[in-house]
Design a protein that fits this description.
The protein is mostly helical. Helix content is about 80%, strand content about 0%. The protein contains three helices and no strands. It is elongated, with a radius of gyration of 16 Å.
C-alpha cells in the first residue's frame, strides 16, 4: 500500500513538472512554417525535458542536482532559439 501511495505522489509530481514546463514555454514556440530547423530544435528540447524527468523519477531524484541543472539549461536554450527566430525575422 505504501508503494502505491509513493508512486501516486511521484506520478503527480511528474505531471505537475511537465505542466510547468509547458506553461513556461507557452508562447515561445518557433513557427514551423518560417523556421523549420529551429522549431525542430525546440521539439528535441521538449523531448529531452521529458526524458530527464523520467530519469529523475527512475533514480528517485537522487542525481546530485545535475538533472535539474540540465533542465534549467534546456529551458534557457529553448528561449534562445525563440530569440534567434525573432532576430532572423527582422
Amino acid at each position: 500500500m505504501t508503494n502505491r501511495i509513493v508512486r501516486t505522489l511521484v506520478t503527480g509530481g511528474v505531471a505537475i513538472g511537465l505542466l510547468s514546463i509547458g506553461l513556461a514555454v507557452y508562447g515561445q514556440k518557433v513557427s514551423k512554417a518560417k523556421h523549420p530547423n529551429l522549431a525542430a530544435a525546440q521539439s528535441f528540447i521538449e523531448k529531452a525535458q521529458v526524458k530527464l524527468t523520467a530519469a529523475q523519477v527512475a533514480n528517485e531524484y537522487d542525481m546530485g542536482g545535475h538533472a535539474a541543472k540540465a533542465k534549467a539549461l534546456l529551458d534557457e536554450a529553448y528561449s534562445e532559439i525563440k530569440l534567434a527566430a525573432e532576430t532572423a525575422n527582422k
